[in-house]
């Protein structure tokens, strides 16, 4: 229980620091959103009036606290470009990005863990060479290129896949899957190529430990040794890796949403940076960091479920 | 069967034999075509109810011998190349892996040296005991947990009901070793292999664990193969002693004969390492040098390089095991003219 409380405090502190940095970065960034909004023709009076209206003439710390208060209450301000609350814009795009991230994560987990186990069981020189080459290739593939290949070879040939746009799950499950699957694969394939080796290494490391010999000495079959004991123990290091994957998957969605013209958060982020739509960009950055920090918080909590040594200390 | 005339050696009745290891060779392929002969032609037997100690320095092949009996040699790189290991007449080396899992933990129980790392850290003590009971005695979960509580009480836990719900890291080294004994004894094994069970423990706890093993042995009528390098432990617990050096058995004797009629210079050196309170020594005794690595054994006697009695013959010719009265065997050229060669 003390462990969980400590994690919650850490989570809140992290978010506070992130919010401060996010705010500060946009103050340093060159470019004036007011000028962008009004264009080059605007005179000084117009600029000052709008600045006052948006509260941008206030001292920075006042602006920060206003904004931070908004974050907590869920009021992220108003987008300069769309003249709409940032919250509404995010809510509109969120389902797309969340579906993409969740499906990607599921694919990575469903493939990387069994593959890692499979390779760990057949550990020898030949398969090590083969699989480490796969990892090298996987690491080197740029996701936009892989996305285009998938569009070309799968998207164009199978009508199940749509190669651009998004269909809400509530409208058609098959349609939503068709729209999400290819972009999800685009992010997942390089992740799998790299991460299954972590799974393999985690398992091989466990297999070397003394307790495995004890279990074998009890007459427990190899299947149980692997799936009950070794896998359960390996889940602790594997979980750490999947915490990291989540951050990478969220980052991956930004590029892939462009390739597949998915109307998600990533696409919104890129267009609003170009427009100097600071309230929107700040909101998105905060959302993305929140997601990543929150997942890592969940991972920490899961540790304590998996590992009694953490739970009881 | 009443046929005494069939006994070629009347002193050795074969049906009180529990385990018979014959010509065991366990080699490790250590790369570049090199072979480490960790266990090289080892033969011995354990009778029912007997405690046999297997002694020797680190690297002499004791643990590999015990893991070979359990068929738990990591393969690759290890491999049992030759020999037979019969448990009540059944050769364990010919069993399928599936049949072997019915022997491990059931007919042969094992305790390891490192109690701190020998239990699975993420499962409760109870879970790790019932696993073995459910596998071998086909017990239901509830029944197995009840048996686990009984076992923990037998090995000396007063609050056994609480212990079964605890995790290994909540227990001390001595307590974990008790748990290991409870697991090893849970299915009344015929043989208990204890691989340096007290080495990692406090001196005060060592005696408790040894006494517990002896109690358990008497209660369940098991035999014990005790692997140790502590001659004090040997003197207290063993009926018979096997001394191993460089993957071979160099001396075998009933425990009294080993201490009082020591033959092999290596055994003499081992015995001299026991500190004696009556002798005022400036330094503790030790045997100079190390056990040669198992891929670099000399062609002659493997102890020759460290032996104070070494002769030219020792460098050139491998001594054979020679048998004396009372089943006392020694592998040394010093005794070549006495006793009878048995290999």
TrEMBL record, chain A:
Membrane disposition: Multi-pass membrane protein
Q: Name one Pfam family in it.
A: BPD_transp_1
Q: A single GO CC term, please? A: plasma membrane
Q: Indicate where this protein is primarily found.
A: membrane
Alphabetically, the GO molecular function entries are: dipeptide transmembrane transporter activity
Ranges for domain ABC transmembrane type-1: 94-303
Q: Which family does it belong to?
A: Belongs to the binding-protein-dependent transport system permease family.
What is the protein named? Peptide ABC transporter permease
Q: Which organism encodes this protein?
A: Viridibacillus arvi
From TrEMBL, chain B:
User: Which InterPro entries does this entry report, sorted A to Z?
Assistant: AAA+_ATPase, ABC_Ni/Peptide_Import, ABC_transporter-like_ATP-bd, ABC_transporter-like_CS, Oligopep_ABC_C, P-loop_NTPase
What PROSITE patterns is this protein classified in? ABC_TRANSPORTER_1, ABC_TRANSPORTER_2
Instruction: Give UniProt keywords alphabetically.
Output: ATP-binding, Cell membrane, Membrane, Nucleotide-binding, Transport
Q: How does it sit in the membrane?
A: Peripheral membrane protein
Q: Where is the ABC transporter domain?
A: 19-271
**BP terms from Gene Ontology:** peptide transport
Highest taxon listed in the record's lineage: Bacteria
Q: Name one GO molecular function term.
A: ATP hydrolysis activity
> Is Cell membrane one of the keywords UniProt gives this record?
yes
GO CC, any one term? plasma membrane
* Tagged with keyword rRNA processing: no
A Pfam family this protein belongs to?
Answer: ABC_tran
The places in or outside the cell where this protein is found are: Cell membrane
In which family does this protein belong, per the annotation? Belongs to the ABC transporter superfamily.
> Any idea what this protein is called?
Peptide ABC transporter ATP-binding protein
Q: Which organism is it from?
A: Viridibacillus arvi
């Amino acid at each position: 229980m003390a462990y969980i409380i400590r994690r919650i405090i850490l989570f809140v502190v992290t978010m506070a620091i992130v919010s401060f940095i996010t705010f500060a970065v946009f103050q340093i960034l060159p470019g004036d959103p007011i000028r962008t909004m009004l264009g080059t023709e605007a005179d000084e009076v117009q600029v000052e009036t709008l600045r006052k209206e948006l509260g941008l003439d206030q001292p920075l710390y006042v602006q920060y606290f206003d904004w931070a208060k908004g974050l907590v209450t869920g009021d992220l301000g108003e987008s300069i470009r769309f003249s709409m609350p940032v919250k509404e814009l995010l809510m509109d795009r969120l389902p797309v990005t969340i579906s993409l991230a969740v499906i990607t994560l599921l694919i990575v987990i469903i493939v990387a863990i069994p593959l890692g186990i499979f390779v760990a069981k057949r550990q020898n020189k030949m398969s090590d060479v083969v699989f480490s080459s796969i990892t090298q290739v996987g690491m080197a593939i740029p996701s936009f290129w892989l996305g285009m290949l998938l569009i070309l070879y799968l998207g164009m040939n199978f009508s199940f896949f749509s190669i651009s746009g998004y269909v809400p799950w509530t409208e058609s499950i098959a349609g939503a899957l068709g729209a999400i699957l290819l972009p999800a694969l685009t992010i997942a394939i390089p992740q799998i190529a790299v991460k299954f080796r972590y799974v393999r290494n985690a398992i091989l490391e466990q297999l070397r430990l003394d307790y495995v010999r004890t279990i074998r000495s009890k007459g427990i079959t190899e299947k149980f040794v692997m799936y009950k004991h070794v896998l359960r123990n390996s889940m602790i290091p594997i979980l750490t890796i999947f915490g990291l994957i989540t951050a990478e998957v969220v980052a991956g969605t930004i590029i892939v949403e462009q390739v597949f013209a998915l109307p998600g958060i990533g696409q919104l982020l890129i267009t609003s940076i170009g427009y100097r739509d600071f309230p929107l960009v700040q909101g998105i950055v905060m959302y993305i960091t929140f997601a990543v920090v929150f997942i890592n918080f969940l991972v920490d909590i899961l540790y304590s479920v998996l590992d009694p040594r953490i739970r009881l200390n | 069967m009443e046929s005494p005339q069939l006994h070629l050696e009347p002193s050795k009745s074969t049906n009180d034999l529990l385990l018979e290891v014959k010509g065991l060779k366990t080699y490790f392929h250590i790369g570049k075509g090199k072979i480490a002969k960790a266990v090289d032609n080892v033969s011995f037997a354990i009778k029912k109810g007997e405690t046999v100690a297997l002694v020797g320095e680190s690297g002499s092949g004791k643990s590999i011998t015990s893991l070979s009996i359990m068929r738990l040699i990591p393969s690759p790189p290890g491999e049992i190349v030759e020999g037979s290991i019969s448990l009540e007449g059944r050769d364990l080396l010919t069993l399928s892996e599936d049949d072997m899992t019915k022997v491990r933990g059931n007919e042969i129980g094992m305790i390891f040296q490192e109690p701190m790392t020998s239990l699975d850290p993420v499962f409760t003590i109870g879970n790790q005991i019932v696993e073995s009971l459910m596998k071998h005695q086909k017990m239901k979960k509830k029944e197995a947990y009840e048996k686990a509580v009984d076992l923990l009480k037998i090995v000396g836990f007063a609050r056994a009901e609480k212990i079964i719900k605890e995790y290994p890291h909540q227990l001390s080294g001595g307590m974990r070793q008790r748990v290991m004994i409870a697991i090893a004894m849970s299915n009344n094994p015929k043989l208990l292999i204890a691989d340096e069970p007290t080495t990692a423990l406090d001196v005060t706890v060592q005696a408790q664990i040894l006494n517990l093993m002896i109690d358990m042995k008497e209660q369940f009528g098991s035999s014990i193969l005790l692997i140790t390098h502590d001659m004090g432990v040997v003197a207290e617990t063993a009926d018979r002693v096997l001394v191993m050096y460089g993957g071979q058995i160099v001396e075998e004797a009933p425990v009294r004969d080993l201490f009082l009629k020591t033959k092999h210079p290596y055994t003499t050196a081992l015995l001299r390492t026991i500190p004696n309170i009556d002798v005022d020594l400036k330094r503790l005794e030790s045997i100079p040098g190390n056990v040669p690595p198992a891929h670099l054994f000399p062609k002659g006697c493997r102890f020759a390089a460290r032996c104070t009695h070494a002769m030219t013959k020792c460098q050139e010719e491998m001594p054979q095991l020679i048998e004396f009265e009372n089943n006392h065997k020694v592998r040394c050229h010093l005794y070549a003219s006495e006793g009878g060669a048995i290999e």
